[in-house]
Amino acid sequence: MSVQTDSDKRKQISVRGIVAVENVTEVKKAFNRHLHYTLVKDRNVATPRDYYFALAHTVRDHLVSRWIRTQQYYYEKDPKRVYYLSLEYYMGRSLQNTMINLGIQGNVDEALYQLGLDIEELEELEEDAGLGNGGLGRLAACFLDSMATLGLAAYGYGIRYEYGIFTQKIENGEQQEEPDDWLRYGNPWEKARPEFMLPVNFYGRVVDTPQGKKWIDTQVVFAMPYDNPIPGYNNNVVNTLRLWSAKSPIDFNLRFFNSGDYIQAVLDRNVAENISRVLYPNDNFFEGKELRLRQEYFMCAATLQDIIRRYKASKFGSREAVRTTFDSLPDKVAIQLNDTHPALAIPELLRILLDIEKLPYEKAWDLVVKCCAYTNHTVLPEALERWPCSMLENCLPRHMQLIYHINFLHLQEVQKRWPGDADRMRRMSLIEEEGEKRVNMANLCVVGSHAVNGVAAIHSEILKATVFRDFFEMWPDKFQNKTNGITPRRWLLLCNPALSDLICDKIGDEWTVHLEMLQKLKRWAKDPAFQRSVMKVKQENKLRLAGLIERDTGVRINPASMFDVQVKRIHEYKRQILNILHVITLYNRIKRDPSAVITPRTVMIGGKAAPGYFIAKQIIALACAVGNTVNNDPDVGDKLKLIYLENYRVTLAERIMPAADLSEQISTAGTEASGTGNMKFMLNGALTIGTMDGANVEMAEEAGEHNMFIFGMRVDDVEALKQRGYNAYEYYERNPELRQCVEQIRSGFFSPGEPGRFSHVADVLLHHDRFMHLADFDAYIEAQEKVSQVYQDQAKWAEMVIENIASSGKFSSDRTIAEYARQIWGVEPSWEKLPAPHDT
Ligand SMILES: *Cc1c(COP(=O)(O)O)cnc(C)c1O
């Protein structure tokens, strides 16, 4: 029996689960039971946080049988397992996502209403799982959702950082970092598995024995697994994300016990446990710290032991036995490396097969290459991992030996193919000899993998033509493209229920698992009624975001203005400065003619800067300073605002994407490997102003260039300009508006109390700008003028919005994962449901 109530601000739609009285009753009972037995509270003393935890446990109960049964099913059926290895998983919150994927949101909403509780208020009490920096970590999270939804026997492996990405506070117009103590109140979504704890070795030395090499005198750290459920969408699959936490061995620092300093020995246990203490907050930047190297190896070593254990123990054929040969390893195991961060999985797997399982070298190496595949995420040289040989030698002496050996055999092959080509040998070597000797981890990954992929078509082409050119000549068949995607469950169904409903009204709900279906919306692109409905939803979402911003910052924004948004990590290559230059240009134009009619805009910029990235922090300060000037100028009024969005993270992205009109994707062509923020905006009906970079190129291909605002240099133009020699002054001198902007920044117009405050930023723009901001300034301003003009014509704008939504199907991570599955992992996606358990 179905009940219809007005209890819920979130409309009931079929994809979010039918409301049935008996199920609502069950949810209420379970909630009360958890409040009593799990939280040990009654309703007189329970806090909102107690209610959140009672609710989380209630929802979690619905996962348990599905989780156990899915894992049992994998054991029985023994399909090829997919292992996704990543140092980052930017998961955000789990509560609403779990309810949606299990189809119980309707029942739970109704139950909480009947209990007199505001579910949205409780949802706000969940901490984000911020175990990632930006796009790379969020991609891993979207992939987990899609792998479960496509029924793959997949496992995510990573580190359970005690502190995730820092919390950003903007104080006096500057970024301050606060530690993200996300586990403070406990994590109801994880299950510790101390019984599966595994040892990981560091340091020590390698000795020759008659039985082969032995790595001895090591220091041991234990890896304690914490399992996190990953529910598929509406298919009763629950996969596992296993995150490792470092634990000291009981006898750690035994010598102190012997020397009698018991207290010191106990205190020193922290040293080992520091391995999983904190996420490194760098995005697209390599910081060669030993602790980070230890994190990377810790994750790989624990994960590979787990993979080998599961391979050996798997039931195969109809017999229950232990696998004794490794011949079928590549038929049962696919290992995907998310960038080079888990590259040590390659020498570690080789070490296990060689030193522990005693396979001959040729056989062991062949298995490694067949199992492993590598995804490249960037061509920025400062992001490429190059570990000093001295550090590896000290920390992981056996692995350093193996890398030398891999390199020796690899260079023999190069020599055979290109005799006497010493320069090519140098370029293709795993070891860089100039300056301090280092291991090039990307080269190690290419040599040790059967497949190498970029993350958007243009990026994959750039890889073959530049960083991996020599490798592409040697192994053309290794190189592939897998254009990134996002999960439409979190990035539409969850974050934008009103738009989801509107789409369901028109084309049904199949799009939730077959996003290409959105194409059907094209029929109504010019339909005035549908245009009005779409724009009404956008307006409601804008009002909601405006309310949030006013609550948090006190700044009032004009909800009739265009919401012009750039949210992503702060990085010079992403060119937030270009956006700021546009705001300053608009400001100067308003000041010159305060009566001129312009399209009102609220420009929002958000994102974290790596704490050690000086210029990135200056960019944040500049945005705040310009905002301060613009927002408080009475001549400007409602026409222009610049807001800095504090602490951009997954949960804030879920509020922003549905409310954006304009998406800023303005990196220098050739620098943004793919971008995924661009896709979230598109799916939620924002139009893109962007360069022909990363996945923007494919978005233009799908929607047509006439439905985007493409501007600026293409990759070839950027290359040509670099060849010719980029001279910022050429552009500076030619354009008086640009000159005025740069002068205002340089001379302290936005920082009157401290005139030299931003001189460094102006200096970068004029003298050492790797990303050629000024070369694209004219084209950018011109494209922005076009944006303003089209926005005046709301019917035209709405038509373009619908065309964009309808064209965004390609950017589902389901499509991406289906391609990885078939073309790299050798497994077949399935949209079949597992049988539902009878207990829920
Ligand atoms: C999607 C996402 C990103 C990636 O954004 P890009 O614009 O592709 O760099 C970064 N951070 C968060 C919180 C995200 O959700």
From TrEMBL:
Keyword line: Carbohydrate metabolism, Glycogen metabolism, Glycosyltransferase, Phosphoprotein, Pyridoxal phosphate, Transferase
EC number(s) in its UniProt entry? 2.4.1.1
Q: Which Pfam families match?
A: Phosphorylase (PF00343)
Query: What domain of life?
Result: Eukaryota
| PROSITE patterns per UniProt | PHOSPHORYLASE
Cofactor(s) in the UniProt record = pyridoxal 5'-phosphate
User: What is the top EC class of this enzyme, as a single word?
Assistant: transferase
Q: Which chain positions lie within coiled-coil regions? A: none
Please report which protein family the annotation says this sequence is part of: Belongs to the glycogen phosphorylase family.
Q: Which PANTHER family match?
A: GLYCOGEN PHOSPHORYLASE
Name the chain's protein: Alpha-1,4 glucan phosphorylase
What would be the name of the gene that encodes this protein? jg7944
